[in-house]
Design a protein that fits this description.
The chain has 216 residues and is of the alpha/beta class. It has helices spanning 13-21, 29-48, 83-93, 142-151, 169-178, 207-212; strands at 2-5, 53-60, 63-70, 74-80, 98-108, 114-122, 130-134, 137-138, 159-168, 183-191, 193-194, 200-201. Strands 1, 4, 5, 6, 7, 8, 9 and 10 form an eight-stranded mixed beta sheet that branches. Strands 2-3 form a two-stranded antiparallel ribbon. A two-stranded antiparallel ribbon has the order 11-12. The N and C termini lie far apart (38 Å).
């Protein structure tokens, strides 16, 4: 599979990465959600460069113009709840895309290891389509792999794009070793380590809590 780290390029994108990490700016939940959304838009723009295009003739008031337009049938999917504002950024750009939502949770074992289990899926067919799966955090990588396994029940996508804002080095390696050749992994930043609870360090904390408030 292919791999792209947007944070390695010098752009305004890094401003948004800095803000979602900043412990003081994080106190404004609305700003945190908006930054996730804006970064989703940037990812969507970058991914759009990899789509298939064909020339279309557009009629204007004064004549016609030929423009290359994307032809992919796109299905946007995300892992709830942290992924919702990030997903919205993609939808702002791919406004005719179909949408899918996955509920997943950690099942912690007695020996302090854990598995990721999916308990909810609402998604159209992805057969022959372009699948874009987004999740703000890629820690161990197990959530992404589990989500793709669940999505197999909806068909086989022609092309898969995985988008994560902040990833761990371990998670990146896990995903690259467990995803098909027709997939591309897109990340915004890569951190070196996971702590004992499998949270990314330095990371940014719990993206879902920062966006929507703490869970019980």
């Amino acid at each position: 599979m292919n791999y792209c780290n947007l944070g390695e390029q010098h752009s305004i994108f890094n401003n948004f990465i800095a803000e979602i990490r900043d412990i003081n700016i994080q106190k404004d939940a609305m700003r945190f959600r908006r930054n996730l959304e804006r970064m989703g838009e940037i990812f969507a723009y970058e991914i759009s460069k990899k789509l298939n295009y064909e020339s279309k003739t557009i009629t204007t008031p004064l004549g016609t113009a030929n423009i290359d337009l994307p032809t992919d049938n796109i299905v946007l999917t995300t892992i709830m709840r942290a992924g919702l504002p990030f997903h919205q950024g993609f939808l702002n750009y791919f406004d005719t895309a179909e949408n899918g939502f996955i509920g997943a949770f950690r099942n912690t074992e007695e020996n302090h290891t854990f598995t990721i289990e999916a308990d909810y899926l609402a998604c159209p067919s992805i057969e022959g389509k372009t699948l874009i799966l987004s999740d703000p955090m890629l820690a161990s990588g197990k959530s992404i792999v589990t989500a793709l396994d669940v999505l197999k029940s909806r068909g086989n996508a022609n092309t898969i794009h995985i988008a994560a804002l902040i990833a761990s080095k371990e998670g990146v390696n896990y995903v690259l070793n467990n995803l098909p050749k027709n997939a591309t992994l897109w990340v915004g930043a890569v951190d070196e380590t996971l702590n004992s609870h499998a949270y990314i360090v330095p990371g940014l904390g719990d993206a879902g809590d920062l966006a929507y408030g703490e869970k019980l």
